[in-house]
Amino acid sequence: MAGHSQFKNIMHKKGAADARRSKVFGKLAREITVAAKLGTPDPDMNPRLRLAIQNARAENMPKDNIERAIKKAAGGDADAYESMRYEGYGPGGVAMIVEALTDNRNRTAGAIRSVFSRYGGALGETGSVGFLFDRVGEIVYPLKAGTADAVLEAAIDAGAQDVVSNEDGHRILCAFADLNEVAKALEARLGEAGTVKGIWRAQATSRLDEEKAASMLKLLAALEDDDDVQGVYSNVEISDALMEKLTTAA
Question: In this structure, what is the dihedral angle of CA atoms 74, 76, 77, 82, given to the nearest 10 degrees?
Fold first, then answer.
């Protein structure tokens, strides 16, 4: 497993996700508010809001928090957030894409640029690395959703493009434009997914030595810690053995 998803899995196993639950809830609430403000507060009529709520539930975000975020948008007192995408290079020339929701683009750009510089990277122009990634939909189910064969059959029938099943669960990929429809079809067969979202999938991966890999993990962690950052993607590949060594030593 390569890149950002590998980092997230390791950190989750080490308990870091629980320690940062409040920050995660804050980011989820921001996405729910933005989705409700841009569309309608009814998730049945607003695909983006429906997916945001689904992802919030997957993180065990309390129902009151979800409803409060929606009411904030409906009440007209929500901050004016805009979606931003930043592209750049991490240690060893690793390609990276950072997605953010911000109410102050100058603050966010400055913070992200500073983090890149601090850990041996460099923020580039829009389009500098985007061509190295494909925008796709990602739907993740836990192992209990079904056997690998059952999930594969459901994914094919739903119009998905790829399925990877392992000890972490079932990861289903589809065309980004088809994400909502594929997710609905899978939900009818397998129940509600763990997460449903658009991601940037690297077309090829880049391996790093131990020193640069250590810097890369610090860069990823620092970006994840920024309140404005909603997603971080890279084409880095770090072996399981090296990842375990680095995260154990941290």
Answer: 90
Give the burial class of 141: count Cβ atoms within 10 A of its Cβ; 0-12 exposed, 13-18 middle, 19 or more buried. Answer: buried
* Mean pLDDT to the nearest integer, 137-166: 95
Query: Using 50, 70 and 90 to split pLDDT, how confident is the model at 122?
Result: very high
Q: Which two tokens stand for residue 60?
A: 């065990």
Cα separation, 15 vs 13, in Å, equals 5
Nearest to 178 by CA among 237, 135, 236, 228: 135
What value, to the nearest 5°, has the Cα angle with vertex 136 and ends 237 and 48? 125
pLDDT tens for 12-66 read 444 455 557 788 899 999 999 999 988 888 998 998 999 999 999 988 999 999 9
Which CATH number does the domain 82-131+205-249 belong to among 3.30.830.10, 3.30.70.980, 3.20.20.70, 3.80.10.10? 3.30.70.980
Distance of CA 132 to the CA centre of its chain: 17
Distance between CA atoms of 224 and 243, rounded to whole angstroms? 17
> At 139, which amino acid appears?
I
pLDDT, tens only, 66-93: 999 998 887 766 678 889 999 999 999 9
DSSP code string of 213-234: HHHHHHHHHHHHTSTTEEEEEE
